[in-house]
């Protein structure tokens, strides 16, 4: 009867309420204590719960002892509640301790489907790392490559109001554990964190004259910390002889530097890609077009696009693939020139896409191309011209055009 009661409480509301979870926990505690749960280390102000180096107490199997299903139900419910505190992290740690003491078997799927989500329910970077450390201590054998990657992805996405930046030290510690365990290391573990840095850089609001000074300083501080973290991680990657960066990782690095305004560093990444170490792909093209626009470099935009188009029409050389610009690349090019202040060139590119420019490999405009051009046209006072062009030549796209928002100019 215990299992259905716990399940019913944990699923009565979506998301579960703290009251329901607490009631389910009380039922669990009764079941646990009935099985003679060993006393856990006492709490103290200095160390609310000692997570590490706990003695093991093997127990004989018993069909009434809590099983993995009960723990999965409770932990999943806790991870989905909206009330997160230090106490929440302590409860999750204690449940992991109980799982160990009752000899509940874990597997990699548990880490990917349940444990990784628990990390997002912690209240600090330190608490999340403590949870990982205890899991590794109690069941290191289940941490295979997918499990490690799931944990790293969740740690990278952890963000708190007082500290939105992921802990690079903790992240690298887990990578070290991964390497020490003999788990194959891939460039993707670096890509995860570089991508997160780019996302955080994009989220920093642009200050306005009305922005409070403390918000401006907060954004500036986060920007500086992100730049330093990106440089440190890039250096770590360069020194890591076990990992050869692929194009996905290089794209993530270039994008992070670009979003942070570190244009010289971003250009350095593009030069490596342009020389085939590794060879660029279509995502690289979009990022470098953004780089040209944000760095206000029209000459680079002309030169790079000409080189890309020239290579696209040549036969492949060695291992370097032929990369033909996609429709998304053309949209990035439109945005690049509009951001550079050359709206006429942006309009000409869009027109070439409509009529083909005499070349069969120029893609037709899509909704993204039309939206991008129109949004920038508002700043140049040419929206009527663009709307008329789309209405006459692309009637299917015309009804879907966005309406102007003076409070949100294109970025």
Structural class: mainly alpha
Rg value: 27 Å
What's the shape? elongated
- Characterize the biggest β-sheet: none
Strand segment count:
0
Fraction of residues in H or I helices? 55-70%
Q: Whole-Å distance between the termini?
A: 58 Å
Protein name: Pentatricopeptide repeat-containing protein
Organism: Hydnum rufescens UP504
InterPro entries: TPR-like_helical_dom_sf (IPR011990)
Keywords: Repeat
Please tell me about this protein's structure.
- The longest helix is centred in the middle third of the chain and has 27 residues, at 213-239.
- It contains 18 helices and no strands.
- Among the domains are: 186-325, no CATH class; 346-411, no CATH class.
- It is mainly α and 411 residues long.
Give a quick summary of the entry.
This protein is mostly helical and 411 residues long. It has helices spanning 2-11, 18-34, 68-80, 86-101, 108-119, 125-139, 145-157, 168-180, 188-203, 213-239, 247-259, 263-274, 282-294, 298-312, 327-339, 343-355, 367-380, 383-393. 62% of the residues lie in helices and 0% in strands.
Q: Which key terms come to mind for this protein?
A:
TPR-like_helical_dom_sf, mainly alpha, 411 residues, 18 helices
Mind sketching the topology for me?
Layout lengths: L1 H10 L6 H17 L33 H13 L5 H16 L6 H12 L5 H15 L5 H13 L10 H13 L7 H16 L9 H27 L7 H13 L3 H12 L7 H13 L3 H15 L14 H13 L3 H13 L11 H14 L2 H11 L18
Helix pairs in contact: 1-2, 1-3, 2-3, 3-4, 3-5, 4-6, 5-7, 7-8, 7-9, 9-10, 9-11, 11-12, 11-13, 13-14, 13-15, 15-16, 15-17, 16-17, 17-18
């Amino acid at each position: 009867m215990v299992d259905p009661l716990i399940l019913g409480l944990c699923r009565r509301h979506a998301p579960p309420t703290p009251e329901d979870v607490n009631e389910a926990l009380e039922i669990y505690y009764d079941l646990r204590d009935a099985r003679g749960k060993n006393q856990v280390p006492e709490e103290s102000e200095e160390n609310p719960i000692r997570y590490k180096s706990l003695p093991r107490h093997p127990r004989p199997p018993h069909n009434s002892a809590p099983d993995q299903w009960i723990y999965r139900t409770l932990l999943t419910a806790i991870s989905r509640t909206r009330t997160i505190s230090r106490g929440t992290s302590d409860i999750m740690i204690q449940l992991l301790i109980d799982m160990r003491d009752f000899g509940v078997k874990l597997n990699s799927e548990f880490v990917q489907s349940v444990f990784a989500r628990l990390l997002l329910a912690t209240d600090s970077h330190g608490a999340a790392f403590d949870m990982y450390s205890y899991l590794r201590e109690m069941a290191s054998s289940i941490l295979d490559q997918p499990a490690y990657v799931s944990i790293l992805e969740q740690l990278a996405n952890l963000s708190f109001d007082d500290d939105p930046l992921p802990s690079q030290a903790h992240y690298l510690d887990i990578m070290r554990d991964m390497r020490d365990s003999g788990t194959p290391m891939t460039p993707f573990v670096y890509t995860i964190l570089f991508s997160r840095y780019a996302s955080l850089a994009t989220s920093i609001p642009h200050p306005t004259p009305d922005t409070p000074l403390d918000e401006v300083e907060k954004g500036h501080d986060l920007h500086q910390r992100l730049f330093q973290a990106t440089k440190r991680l890039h250096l770590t990657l360069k020194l890591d002889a076990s990992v050869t960066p692929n194009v996905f990782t290089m794209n993530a690095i270039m994008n992070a530097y670009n979003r942070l305004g570190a244009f010289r560093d971003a250009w350095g990444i593009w030069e490596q890609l342009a020389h085939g170490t590794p060879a660029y792909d279509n995502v690289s093209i979009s990022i470098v077009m953004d780089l040209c626009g944000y760095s206000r470099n029209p000459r680079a935009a002309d030169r790079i696009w000409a080189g890309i188009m020239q290579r696209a029409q040549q036969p492949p050389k060695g291992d370097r693939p032929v990369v033909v610009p996609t429709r998304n690349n053309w949209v990035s090019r439109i945005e690049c020139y509009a951001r550079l202040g050359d709206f006429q060139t942006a309009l000409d590119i869009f027109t070439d896409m409509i009529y083909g420019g005499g070349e069969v490999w120029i893609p037709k405009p899509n909704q993204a191309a039309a939206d991008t051009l129109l949004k920038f046209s508002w700043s140049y006072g040419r929206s009527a011209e663009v709307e008329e062009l789309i209405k006459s030549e692309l009637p299917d796209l015309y009804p879907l055009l966005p309406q102007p928002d003076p409070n949100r100019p294109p970025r």
